Amino acid sequence: MSDIARQAGIHVTTVSQILNRRSNCWASEATRRHVMKLAGELGYRPNLAARSLRSGRSHVIGYISPGFGTGSPNSRAMGLTDTAMQHDYTVIVSSHPNDSESEDRLIRRLADRSMDGLVIYPADKGPHTELRRLVNDGFPVVTLDGSALLDFECDDISPDYQQVGRLQVRHLLETGRRRIGLIDTIPTGRINVIRDQAIRDLLAREGLPPPLELQIAIEDLQSEFVDAEPLVTGIRACLETQRGCFDALISHDTLASLAARILMETGCRIPGDVSVMGAGNSILAIYGLLPLTSISTADDQAGALAFGLLMDRMKQKRANLPFRRIVSPSNLIVRSSTIRT
Amino acid sequence: MSDIARQAGIHVTTVSQILNRRSNCWASEATRRHVMKLAGELGYRPNLAARSLRSGRSHVIGYISPGFGTGSPNSRAMGLTDTAMQHDYTVIVSSHPNDSESEDRLIRRLADRSMDGLVIYPADKGPHTELRRLVNDGFPVVTLDGSALLDFECDDISPDYQQVGRLQVRHLLETGRRRIGLIDTIPTGRINVIRDQAIRDLLAREGLPPPLELQIAIEDLQSEFVDAEPLVTGIRACLETQRGCFDALISHDTLASLAARILMETGCRIPGDVSVMGAGNSILAIYGLLPLTSISTADDQAGALAFGLLMDRMKQKRANLPFRRIVSPSNLIVRSSTIRT
DNA sequence: TTGAAAGCGTTACCAA
DNA sequence: TTGGTAACGCTTTCAA
Asked: Which nucleotides of C are covered by protein (CB under 7 A)?
């Protein structure tokens, strides 16, 4: 910048003004032109560390989630990074093993980089000490799937998990199913709890028997991408004891796919004998051998939305903005695992 | 830091020394203790922007790939971020639509943040202007899958795609298959070219007829996660004309899964009539309805390895380190799409 | 073993 | 419309 100033015979301050305040730039058109030209010739690039140090704004936002390997966390990360990029923000993506201490550590590190805002998928349990502190301090934070989990107010975007459950059940009822099984690993997360309750409520309201709850005895699958065997064994054991007690299964895509596999092994036809319904509309549902009826939760849009909320808060000087909870809609995607073609 | 210095009655320089140079710290044990205690009490956190500005090192490394949504780019990103984290480095992950200009833009942005190193999955084509410049300047760069693509020397980690092809064919031959079909979209990437050539060579060496090349007429699938229909239509058209001309199909997991779907629709049994072989060992191969024989390329390890290479180069003052090309091994993972259980 | 000074590249603030 | 000064928080270098 000082090189440009020297060559243009003006002060470095003026150069700074011209190079940044594109809109309300009060420099004369002549000098402006000259400076821009020189900047191009000399290949000027701003030093973002210096800018951050001086201005207190880094144009960095953090994204923290327990593993962005697949599914929702990943789609949201992509949606966020893309949107942020368009607005000239950089995203630092980091993942942790779903515990509160790791979460705290990551938050502190991002704070050291003086991030301007944080989008976070809170860990399933724990005190969330640092997160709470940030929010209390009026720091821009948007949580994902946090509304049912956190005991403090905060901007949040969550899919309507009740709606997910209702969409699943309704579709099955409409296609003539009545004996519905819910299959899941031991429910650690609040998501399953909410969804399952919605399903029970809906069935009760329709005067139908409650769902068959199939619980797979396995510690929750933290590392996907490894091995399906433990899950397969668990599901097989589970389904064998309940044979013939259901004509439809509800789960998320991964479990639904494996359950379908096991059902077909035992000579069961899908959807002839049993309908199988997933959730997440993941790659498994789309590209799998059996196109899987699923629920799409528009996760990439959630990423973009999160950036929007964050922006509003970052622009605000005083933190007098009321907290907003956005419920993002879900869509039923019908495929051949629930309807005969 | 100056707060600590004031309260301890010593100079800020001393505090800096104590807080950083943990190993060769020459401060007296007493002051050291005192400073550490005060730092804890006052909740001292270093300002990384300031440190970066002054020292010229940011402890940030960049990761650039065309979409980190699924598969290799994603696993590598995860492997990299995890390893980097352990070594106190932050990774800025960014993705682009696989063209050279976007790549250049991202590199410049990361350079503005004065990153210390770059791990990059180069775009399929283009001049790679900025990347070339970085490497020429001796800046620490590790490419992924770049060795067959770039016309300049550079540290690189690539799976052995020839080996991938050979593992695929050998397994099919060993399980009694002879009429092998290669199914793919129009091959834009160098990966397919290398692999396919290895397959042709191997078959020729064994005195067997060349593979049947099945090309799906569709522009390359850039956005996964959208819709399988265009691909399905393409594959269906392709397979119909070649019915009965093959007893095994080779592809990557996504196409393999869809091809299997279509084959089964037409009453073909897998692996009874046709073996189907994927590559990538993705979630589709592991959790899909049909467990898919595939090739694992240990992508998370590649991420960790990339960090290692980068570290070596970042530690080096002078860039006299010879360039290294690491070929990461592949493993055949046999599942039921190629062998009767 | 500690202190002093300088400065990294930029922007905020006020004076001209 | 432009210039000057100071400062952001830290590390480097050298002197005490």
From this structure: 1-5, 7-13
Q: Where are the alpha helices (DSSP H) in chain B?
A: 2-8, 12-20, 29-42, 48-55, 71-86, 100-112, 129-136, 161-174, 190-205, 229-241, 253-265, 283-287, 299-315
pLDDT digits 0-9 by tens, B113-130: 999 999 999 998 899 999
Shortest alpha-carbon distance between residue B259 and chain A (Å): 8
Q: In what order do the strands lie in the sheet with A180-185?
A: A212-216, A180-185, A248-250, A275-277
Q: From the centroid of its chain, how far is CA A188?
A: 18
Q: Is residue B195 over pLDDT 60? A: yes
Q: Is the pLDDT of residue B104 over 60?
A: yes
Contact present, B307 and B278 (Cβ < 8 Å): no
Q: Which domains does chain A have, with CATH numbers?
A: 2-46 (1.10.260.40), 56-159+299-327 (3.40.50.2300), 161-297 (3.40.50.2300)
Mean pLDDT value of segment B299-316? 92
pLDDT at residue B188, as a whole number: 64
B52 contact residues in A (CB cutoff 8 A): 49
Asked if residue B171 lies in contact with residue B338, where contact means CB atoms within 8 angstroms, the answer is: yes
Contacts of residue A11, defined as CB under 8 A and 6 or more positions apart, other chains included, come to: A5
Instruction: Give the least confident one: B76-90, B92-106, B206-220, B234-248.
Output: B206-220
Q: What is the pLDDT of residue B25?
A: 60
User: Measured at the alpha carbon of residue A115, what is the angle toward residues A318 and A158, in degrees to the nearest 5?
Assistant: 75
B-chain residues near A69 (CB < 8 A): 74-75, 78
Tell me if residue A38 falls in helix, strand or coil: helix
Q: For residues A23 and A88, what is the distance between their CA atoms, to the nearest angstrom?
A: 16
Query: Which among B93, B254, B261 has the least Cβ separation from residue A81?
Result: B93
Q: Which of B157, B117, B153 is nearest to B322 (CA)?
A: B153
Beta bridge partner(s), residue A157: A144, A326
CB B267 within 8 A of CB B293: no
Alpha carbons B202 and B179: distance in angstroms, whole number: 14
Q: What are phi and psi of A144, to 5 degrees?
A: -110, 130
**Are B336 and B291 spatial neighbours (Cβ–Cβ below 8 Å)?**
yes
- Spell out, as residue ranges, where chain A has pLDDT lower than 50: none
C-alpha angle B95-B96-B98 in degrees, rounded to nearest 5: 125
Nearest CA in chain A to B105: A85
pLDDT number for residue B173: 96
Q: Å from B154 (CA) to D14 (C1')? A: 39
User: Residue A275: enclosing H or E segment and its boundaries?
Assistant: strand A275-277
| Helix B161-174 vs helix B190-205: crossing angle, to nearest 10 | 40
Q: d(Cα B149, Cα B151) in Å, to the nearest integer? A: 7
Position B24 pLDDT exceeds 80: no
**Which residues of A spanning 49-108 put their CB closer than 7 angstroms to strand D?**
50, 53-54
Mean pLDDT of chain B: 89
Would you say residue B225 has pLDDT above 60? no
pLDDT reading at B96 higher than 60: yes
Q: Which tokens belong to A22? A: 């594109």
Nucleotides of D under 7 A from a protein CB: 1-5, 7-13
Lowest-pLDDT range of A2-16, A95-109, B181-195, B303-317: B181-195
